[in-house]
Prior knowledge:
CATH class of the largest domain: Alpha Beta
Structural class: alpha/beta
Number of strands: 10
Helix content: 25-40%
Radius of gyration: 22 Å
CATH architecture of the largest domain: 3-Layer(aba) Sandwich
Largest sheet: 7 strands, parallel
Strand order of the largest sheet: 6-5-4-7-8-9-10
Strand content: 5-15%
Bound molecules: nicotinamide-adenine-dinucleotide
Number of helices: 11
CATH superfamily of the largest domain: NAD(P)-binding Rossmann-like Domain
Distance between the termini: 49 Å
Amino acid sequence: MTIEGRQTLLPRDPRRPDHRYAFLHRVVRTFTPVYIGKPARLVNCAAVPFHARPPDRRRLIFGVPRIDKCPIEVLTERPAARPRAAKADDAYDPSDRLRAPPGEAVGILDAKVAVVTGGASGIGRAVALRCAAEGASVVVADVQDAAAVVDAARAQRQQIDCRRVDVAASAEVAALMRDVCARHGRLDVLVCAAGISGGTGLTADYPEPDFDQVIGINLKGVFLAMKHAIPQMLHGGGGAIVNIASIAGLIGLRGTPAYAAAKGGVIQLTKVAAVEYAERNVRVNCICPGMIDTPMVQRLPASAQEGFVARQPLSRLGTPDEIAAAAVFLAGPASAFTTGAALVVDGGYTAL
Ligand SMILES: NC(=O)c1ccc[n+]([C@@H]2O[C@H](COP(=O)([O-])OP(=O)(O)OC[C@H]3O[C@@H](n4cnc5c(N)ncnc54)[C@H](O)[C@@H]3O)[C@@H](O)[C@H]2O)c1
């Protein structure tokens, strides 16, 4: 969106809340310098409800329901050059997140709000950064400090918030989803990446407390996140959930009874929720990564990594970005007809 001088802007169909929301989000993102660091400055936003002025983005977003009564008058000092040209004859529909208005590049998660559990490290971190790069407002929920992810996003002029949350604690997860909706007005995307590897050991030798801990975080943690996120998504008209399962949930990996049981459970939870909520526009999918180069895998003995990679057709570790790309696909509109899927991203390991 590039404005020269003074213009009055209206959503294409002001009666539709999704049009109003996408429209206002785009205005705010384009003209709020602290948010995306653009040179254009919003001098006047005369008719926005509640007399809100950027950079008070929260107040603007909360004002969305009344925007139909209030066309926005925008006056910029210096229009920004946008990198990508769009077709001149394209009529811009602000509710269509795949298409950009003339002259504007748009992310495939533009105007979405995403929660990423386990986003402080490894796969979750890559997913959080990728979602932010695609235009989503991202909240990372992790037991670890996620300041480094927040800083990495800020360096790219993107925004990630973080919350300290234990996914195995129901009250903490419920409060997270409630707070995200109170702050951002909606919840569109949930990516469940929090997890631990747990110890290894044959089934008969596996310590019971370790089994409970792995199931509590890796399986119940996903259940709790979905349980508390789905009502918020339904309230906003739908959403997309992406659970990070594992190929350990598909095959019999020796010495991983708790981890494999949890990941198999995540695949089934995914399918059940996909069936339950398809009619109400919530899609639920999971990814089954093979061995990915993250701190979890870096803690394994080198021999374990080498043995795994040696029998894999694509003979290297996967990267967190390769899982993030799959997650963004499953979270975004390109996968609109995909639900209940377990997408295997494993360098061919399970194809043998
Ligand atoms: N790395 C792999 O090869 C691989 C393969 C298949 C599946 N996975 C799965 O991908 C997910 C991410 O793993 P990773 O490799 O990035 O590991 P990682 O250790 O780098 O990241 C896991 C993150 O989850 C967080 N976490 C752990 N327990 C938590 C809790 N109770 N509440 C909130 N956050 C918690 C950790 O603090 C960490 O930030 C996990 O679910 C893992 O099982 C990983």
